[in-house]
Amino acid sequence: MFNIFISCDENYAPHLATTIVSIISNCRTPEMLNFIIGDGGLSSLTTSRLNKMIKSKGAAVEYVYLDEEKFEGLEVKRYGLSIYFRLYLDEVISEDITDILCIDCDTVVVSDILQIKKHVTMDDYTIAAVENIGRSPYKSLGLQKGDYFNCGLMLINMNQWRKKNIGKKALSFLRKHPELCLYPEQSSLNKIIEGQWTKLPITWNAQRPAYKIIEKRLAEQHRPKHEFVESIQAPNVIHYMGKNSKPWDKHTLHPLRDVYFFYRAKTPWPLNTQKPKRNLYKSLKHCLSLQKIFLYHKRRNMSKPLIKAHSQR
């Protein structure tokens, strides 16, 4: 079985379902998938819907929980409790699980997720991920540029995770130095790993700042330009991270929002998934200038084949 861990609360349930259905839809052997959901407060109705959706496609699902006392001393107002589940992986998943994919529920997967394993050899990695594209707080953590990874997708060797006590060390650092952890679990994990992680192709965590890197011809010493181009034209995973990037937000500026709605329509939460209708004046006021609207459509054209393949029919 290929184990996939996603944590979520009730507010993000429709997006969780969208991520899951995108994974199942593009996997040639969905019966190989086992979804482990970190339950951060899902309702019984939600879990019932998820169970039916997942099991009807031949995949498996289970739920894990944490007592609230585990989160004592951690910032929860901004991010919620669910983001911290990953730091307790060794406590919430079975000891016989040797590797697991952790993925955020603001992602969609547009290729066979099982293909990600070809990029690692089981014994020689702890975490395989993609660097955080764009601005990253690597300097404050004493890291080099390109060594700060994004937690939106991580393939984790649980044998190494347990052996090195990564989760416990990250929690300890987070509690002692919250001022250094701009993104709580992400920054703390980066500090503990300290650059000793395996880089996946950027296509496995395609992030919106890649458009800017291509347009501005920014110097990215850790990756060649063609990898950034591939990440927006033929991504494996789209990560809707950052301000104005969530497809469900009224003023989203993410060029690939249509792909999200394509998979959202396949979930038990298809209502209110129409692309947000824009009042032109309000949109212009929000964007501040026509330039941003022009840039938005320019970026959509850069990914036109992908958008067309996921257009609603």
UniProtKB/TrEMBL annotation:
<dbReference type="InterPro" id="IPR002495">
    <property type="entry name" value="Glyco_trans_8"/>
</dbReference>
<dbReference type="GO" id="GO:0046872">
    <property type="term" value="F:metal ion binding"/>
</dbReference>
<keyword id="KW-0808">Transferase</keyword>
<keyword id="KW-0479">Metal-binding</keyword>
<dbReference type="Pfam" id="PF01501">
    <property type="entry name" value="Glyco_transf_8"/>
</dbReference>
<protein>
    <submittedName>
        <fullName>Glycosyltransferase family 8 protein</fullName>
        <ecNumber>2.-.-.-</ecNumber>
    </submittedName>
</protein>
<dbReference type="InterPro" id="IPR050748">
    <property type="entry name" value="Glycosyltrans_8_dom-fam"/>
</dbReference>
<dbReference type="GO" id="GO:0016757">
    <property type="term" value="F:glycosyltransferase activity"/>
</dbReference>
<keyword id="KW-0328">Glycosyltransferase</keyword>
<dbReference type="InterPro" id="IPR029044">
    <property type="entry name" value="Nucleotide-diphossugar_trans"/>
</dbReference>
